[in-house]
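<instruction>
Derive structure tokens from the sequence
<entry> Chain with its tokenised backbone below:
===
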Amino acid sequence: MTFDKLGLRPALLARLAEQNLTTPTPIQTRAIPEALTGRDIMGLAQTGTGKTLAFGLPIADALLAQAAKCEPRSARALILAPTRELAKQITDNLQLIL
């Protein structure tokens, strides 16, 4: 399985290729197609298995689908994290693909 089989936009596939990410992890393989259809997902996996991209790639895909710019002082997506450290880790991971 490769990321291009999951239905992501070409711009995201290019960013993944730039990061040498070609093969999705099991949680990404199961979660991304479901999230791209608009379904809610809940996943459980060990640390380092790619959970951030499992939910981050569908969010990025949806944002790319919207041509409108975000209004000042507003948001188009919200990711909640229980600690600052986890929020920073999520930010760092998602900045690699955005």
Summary: The helical segments are 10-18, 26-36, 51-65, 84-95. The chain has a mean pLDDT of 93.
